[in-house]
Specification:
The chain is an alpha+beta fold. The chain is about 40% helix and about 20% strand. The chain folds into two domains: about 100 residues, Jelly Rolls (Sandwich), CATH 2.60.120.10; about 180 residues, Hypothetical protein af1432 (Orthogonal Bundle). The chain is built from eleven helices and seven strands. Strands 1, 2, 3, 4, 5, 6 and 7 form a seven-stranded antiparallel sheet that branches. It is globular and about 70 Å long. It binds fe (ii) ion (2 copies).
């Protein structure tokens, strides 16, 4: 081997990285540069943040897949690349097909991004472990919420907030005692008081992270009801963030079509009837309409795995 040359084979790490929805792999960190490979699955959104005073440099090369720069409506495919020395506004991307990116940035940003993503995934895992009824629920919710948000023409920032908030809506349940969370019978009044604290707990956990601050507000409001009869603040109508109004509908839908220890899943037809019945009271009618378009009114139901 020529002195000074390093060769790393990719076959070992490839499989590991491709299993995850969003995975980052630091390839080289040299001085003030990071070289990172990122795998992102179709349907995800991400953004490059505004940094007008930034001294750094970021280069992104599309290795495979397809992504859509939504602000200028540009489609990027394998071989395309983008770079910048700081942006005057946030740039938004939607991943159309599973995509692999090679990122080179200075100063290094990899550790920051990875720690934040890992921390979030860990939080969600801890809720799913604690609350047996919700396995896979967060992921399904995120997907359905985003599809509904698109139908309602939410902008890129709102869709990103919605994506985080949908995924993390019940993260506050990690602070609710297990005996309450998994109690087979009905909860007592005091137990309900504790259970109903989970939106507030969740918001507290998220709000000290800059990039989750908007999502924290949505998490705080995900059990509000359109007519003001929800909790914790009894907000109504447009005072409830639209992202939270979407999560309320999608959350109810997913709960109804899933088996629970105390009841069987409802059929698709019964679930739709239930959503329509509560449209205008519990749910925002506009959101219900958009959501029903997402699930397509198809008689066979949609695959929400
Ligand atoms: Fe909740
Ligand atoms: Fe939920």
């Amino acid at each position: 081997m020529v002195a000074g040359l390093t060769i790393v084979r990719g076959s070992d790490r490839r499989e590991n990285i491709e299993k995850k929805a969003t995975a980052l792999d630091l390839l080289v960190q040299q001085g003030s540069f990071d070289v990172t490979r990122q795998h992102i699955v179709a349907g995800k959104y991400f953004f490059l943040d505004e940094a007008s005073e930034w001294e750094g440099f970021e280069f992104i090369y599309v290795l495979s897949g397809e992504l859509h720069e939504t602000d200028d409506n540009i489609l990027l495919r394998a071989g395309d690349y983008i770079y910048h020395h700081g942006l005057s506004a946030r740039a938004h991307f939607q991943v159309e097909k599973d995509t692999d990116l090679l990122l080179i940035s200075s100063p290094p940003s990899f550790h920051l991004m990875r720690d934040e993503i890992q921390e979030i995934l860990q939080l969600v895992r801890s809720v799913e472990e604690k609350d047996e009824a919700t396995e896979g629920h967060c992921h399904r919710l995120e997907r359905l919420a985003i599809a509904t948000g698109e139908k309602l023409n939410l902008n890129g920032d709102q869709l990103i907030t919605l994506s985080y908030a949908a995924y993390l809506h019940d993260v506050g349940k990690v602070k609710v005692p297990d005996e309450i969370l998994n109690k087979p019978g009905a909860l007592s009044d005091e137990e309900w008081v504790e259970m109903r604290k989970h939106p507030e707990y969740g918001a507290q956990m998220l709000e000290d992270k800059e990039f989750l601050r908007d999502a924290a507000k949505v998490v705080y409001a995900h059990h509000e009801r359109y007519d003001g009869s929800g909790y914790p603040r009894g907000l109504s109508g447009d005072d409830i963030p639209v992202e939270a109004r979407i999560i309320a509908v999608v959350d109810a839908y997913d709960a109804m079509v899933s088996d629970r220890p105390y009841r069987k899943a409802l059929s698709e037809k019964e679930t739709i009837a239930e959503l329509q019945k509560n449209s205008g009271s519990q749910f925002d009618p506009q959101v219900v309409r958009a959501f029903l378009r997402v699930i397509g009114g198809s008689t066979g139901g949609m695959n929400v795995a």
